[in-house]
Design goal:
It contains four helices and 19 strands. The protein is mainly β. The longest helix is centred in the N-terminal third of the chain and has 9 residues. The N and C termini lie far apart (44 Å). The N terminus is likely disordered.
């Protein structure tokens, strides 16, 4: 199977996409005037565990390489354990001007196994963000992310930089496939218009795709894609308080089963910016789904409640992110769209000037919407991660960590290794160059 981008996602890559607004005001200033921001329930962006003093610089070129070793089980289909070695170079670029901001990052990876050399693999990670202020009150933004990985959940969650469970509007990444190639591609674009000092409306569109190039290696898991759009209205009660509503429409399609789900939702939300570095959001409302497929599978229609909450705190020596969401989502590899419930939390603490540690936990439940008509592949997963990182001078850092993952699904590809353990250590080199303004 060839790896290729869709026309939609390729277009966003050329634009170097983003979902953030430029020229934002401080939401906790207490002022009711100036530029508004799009709250978390609208953007669906993940939060960062950076400390307040680690806010990223703009107009920079960054790069480096991480070299590490890991030991874990589930390397082969039999569940065997092995030692692996990783080399992961990375490079990123960001630029901010008066009317636009954009950044681009690329990180390939190469993994070599000690005993199972036939499983040696390469990963690809490309992400881009773009935001352009068309006028003083109209902003266009877009984002694109493409990943080719093996055991992508383990790779993504071991650094705990952002939430590992599915966000409010993000694709479902709560299911870990066995040791085989996994390709994910997600794109979105948004247009916002601030029509008054306290009022904003917006439209957005999104596309995501999940595929397993070697389908025979993942019995019970399916390829899938989703596409849809949404509209929102938000009102700033004061500089710290936002309320609003959002309408979303999504179509989820599975391959090769041909199962499809049309989902619609209307959510009310409230966001409170307690301080510049502390925010809290809550949302909720009704969801409607219409699931259908090739005969003799009957059409199944249902109503269900949706909602959730998220919290972000970035202090000088501590940071915290946490979220809960209940939503209709893509199956993440299961046989059809699902009713998803997920909760996750991570906390980071700075023990000394050059030493910090992070712990995190994630629990998710996926219930296939049309499980009564096909094989019941509903289930749950739970994971916990701990990392310790030490800065070695200006350019080097050392990291060690442990990940435990348990999955309970009636799927052959997962039942062979329901429990995964991974211990790793890595040393990294990073440089940063200012690009001027």
């Amino acid at each position: 199977m060839k790896i290729k981008f869709t026309q939609v996602s390729l277009g966003f890559m050329l634009l170097a996409a983003s979902s953030s607004l430029s020229a934002q005001a401080d939401p906790a200033s207490g002022s009711g005037s100036g530029s508004m921001i799009a709250p978390a329930p609208v953007t669906g962006e993940g939060y960062s565990l950076d400390f307040a003093s680690e806010q990223p610089r703009t107009n920079t070129l960054r790069g480096g390489v991480d070299i590490g070793a890991a030991y874990g089980n589930g390397v082969a289909p039999s569940g065997a354990s092995d030692v692996s070695y990783q080399v992961s170079p990375n490079i990123s670029f960001n630029q901010t001007r008066s009317r636009f901001s954009w950044d681009l990052s690329y990180s390939p990876g190469f993994t070599f196994y000690q005993k199972y050399s036939a499983l040696n693999q390469s990963n690809q990670n490309v992400a881009s963000k773009f935001s352009y202020r068309l006028s003083p009150h109209v902003t266009f933004s877009a984002d694109e992310s493409f990943t080719k990985s093996v055991g992508g959940y383990l790779q993504a969650c071991q650094n705990l930089s952002t939430s590992c469970s599915g966000g409010i509007q993000s694709p479902n990444n709560s299911i870990l496939a066995p040791n085989t190639d996994t390709i994910t591609d997600a794109s979105s674009a948004r247009l916002t218009y601030q029509f008054s000092p306290g009022g904003m409306v917006g439209l957005s569109g999104s596309f995501s795709e999940l595929s397993y190039p070697h389908q025979s290696q993942v019995p019970g898991l399916n390829n899938s894609n989703s596409a849809g759009g949404s509209a929102f209205y938000t009102h700033r009660i004061s500089g710290k308080h936002y309320i609003g509503a959002t309408y979303e429409y999504q179509k989820y399609l599975n391959h090769p089963d041909g199962l499809a789900t049309l989902a619609q939702s209307v959510m009310l939300f409230y966001t409170f910016y307690i301080q510049r570095s502390i925010s809290f959001s809550i949302f909720g409302g009704p969801q409607y789904s219409d699931s259908y497929g090739p005969l003799p599978i009957p059409t199944i229609r249902s109503w269900s409640p949706g909602g959730g909450a998220s919290l972000n705190w970035q202090g000088q020596h501590n940071s915290l992110i946490g979220s809960y969401s209940r939503k209709i989502s893509d199956g993440g590899g299961l046989q059809g769209a699902v009713s998803y419930n997920g909760v996750d939390a991570s906390i980071r603490h700075q023990f000394a000037a050059a030493l910090s540690g992070t712990i995190g936990a994630d629990y998710s439940v996926n219930k296939v919407l049309d499980a009564g008509a096909i094989d019941n592949t509903s289930g749950h997963s739970i994971s916990g991660t701990a990392t310790l990182q030490r800065q070695l001078g200006q350019h080097f850092n050392l990291m060690a960590g442990y990940l435990r993952l348990h999955q309970s699904y009636d799927i052959q590809a997962i039942n062979t290794v329901p429990n995964r353990n991974r211990v790793w250590v890595s040393i990294g080199y990073q440089f940063q160059r200012s690009l001027g303004r």
